Amino acid sequence: MTACKARQIVACLFLAGLFPASAAAGFGECIGEIRSEAISRGIEAATADQLLADLAPSERVIELDRRQPEFTATLNDYLTARVNDARIDRGRALLDEHAELLQGIRRDYGVPGRYLIAFWGLETNFGSYTGRMPTVQSLATLACDRRRGEFFREQLLAALHLVDERTLEPEQLRGSWAGALGNFQFLPSVYRDHAVDADGDGRKDLWDSLPDAAVSAAAFLRARGWEPGERWGREVQLPDGFDYALAERKQSLRAWRDAGLRTADGGPLPVADLAARLLIPAGADGPAFLVYNNFDVIMRWNPSRFYALSVGLLADRLIGAPPLSNPPPVEEPLRIETVSALQEALNRRGFDAGAVDGRIGTNTRRALRAFQADAGLVDDGHPDTDTLEELGINQSGR
C-alpha cells in the first residue's frame, strides 16, 4: 500500500479495506464517544481535549496488528529470533549486574530474577528499544477498529487517566504500536494498576528506573497468580505410540508419569503435587512441554503460547539450562489466508474451528485433532502438509 498523507488516511484505509466503511466514516464519532466516557469517569475535559484533538487512525498500526509474529511465525523462527546466544549472553551479564535488586524482588514477590530478565529481553531487548510510536494515536486506532475495539478503548481511557492524575506527561506517551510503554512494555491499564515507585523518588518511572520497572513487573506477575517456588514448565519426552488425544489435557504429574512421559534427558518426572498441561506446539516432530500454573501467568502478560515458551526457555538458559533436546522442525510459515481457508474447510466438514480469523487457537487445534483422527493422520493438532493436503488446501490458502 502506498503511504497515505495525514489528511487522506481515513480514505486510504477505507479503500484498502483495513477499516470497514462504517468505521472509516465514524472514526471522529468514535473519538467523541471516548471523550464523553472519559469525562464521565472523572477525567478533566481539558486533558481529554488535549490528547484526543486532531487524531487520525494509523495505517501502520493496523498493518502491524494484522501480522503479529505470534500468529504468523513458526515456532522455530520465533524461538530463533528470541532465545539466541546474543540475548542469553547479555541476559546472564544483567542477571549478575543486578543480582542485589533481583534478590530483593524475589524475596518480596516470589518472582526469580531470571524471569524478569527474560521478560525485559523479549519486550525491549533489555531497554534498548521501548518504542517511538505515539501511544494515543495507536490506541485510538485500535479502539475504533473492528477487531478488539472494546479492549483498546479501555487502554486509551487508562492512558488519559495516567496523564490526568500527573503520573505521566503527554510527551511520555510513546511506545509500541499496541500502546505498550517502558522497559517492560506495560499497557496503560497495567501501568495504572501495578506500577510501583520502588526507588522512592516520587515517580513511577518505567523507562529510566530499573528498580521501578522490575518491581512493577514482579508486582504485576504476582497479582496475576504467580506461584513462588514453581517453575514455568519443562521439555519432556513422549513415549512411543503416545496418544495425542492427551495433548492440552491438564492432569497431575503422577498421571503424566504413568502415561510414560519423561524429562528431556530421559529421566523420570519429579514427584510433586503439581498439575500440568501438555503442549505440542510444533506437532509430533517437534518438542513437547509440560507447563504449570506460572506458564498460564506468563500468558496473562501476553496471550501467546510461543511468547510464553520463549520467556520460560530464555529464563532457563540464563541459569545454564541446555538448548532444547528436540528443537522444532524448520517449516514454512502459514499465511493468515491459509489458516482462514483451513478453518473454513474444517467448519464445512463439521469440525467446529470457531470463527474464521486466520489465527490458530484452542478451537482450531481441537478441530484439527478431531479431523486428523477421523482421517487417520497423526492427531497432534498441527497443520502440517499432510493435513493441509487432506483438507484440499495449499500454502497459498486456496
Write a concise synopsis of the structure shown.
The protein is mostly helical and 398 residues long.
Protein model, in words:
Helix 7 packs across helix 17 (305-318) and helix 9 (99-109) runs parallel beside helix 14. The protein has helices at residues 9-16, 21-25, 27-40, 45-52, 59-66, 69-72, 75-82, 85-97, 99-109, 113-124, 135-143, 149-164, 188-194, 210-223, 253-258, 293-301, 305-318, 336-348, 362-375, 385-390, and strands at residues 133-134, 174-175, 233-237, 250-252, 262-263, 275-279, 288-291. The protein is mostly helical and 398 residues long. The chain has a 5-stranded antiparallel sheet with strand order 4-6-7-3-5. It has a two-stranded antiparallel ribbon with strand order 1-2. It contains 20 helices and 7 strands. The longest helix is centred in the middle third of the chain and has 16 residues, at 149-164. The radius of gyration is 23 Å and the shape is globular. Mean pLDDT is 92; it is low at 1-24.
Kindly state the mean pLDDT as a whole number?
92
Number of helices: 20
Low-confidence stretches: 1-24
The sequence of SSEs as H and E is: HHHHHHHHHHEHHEHHEEHEEEHHHHH
The radius of gyration computed from the alpha-carbon positions, rounded to a whole number of angstroms, is: 23 Å
Task: State the shape.
Answer: globular
Main sheet summary: 5 strands, antiparallel
- The amount of beta strand, in percent, is 5-15%
What is the number of beta strands?
7
Q: State the secondary-structure class.
A: mainly alpha
In terms of quaternary structure, what is this?
single chain
Strand neighbour order, sheet with most strands? 4-6-7-3-5
Rounded to the nearest angstrom, the distance between the terminal CA atoms is 23 Å
Helix content: 40-55%
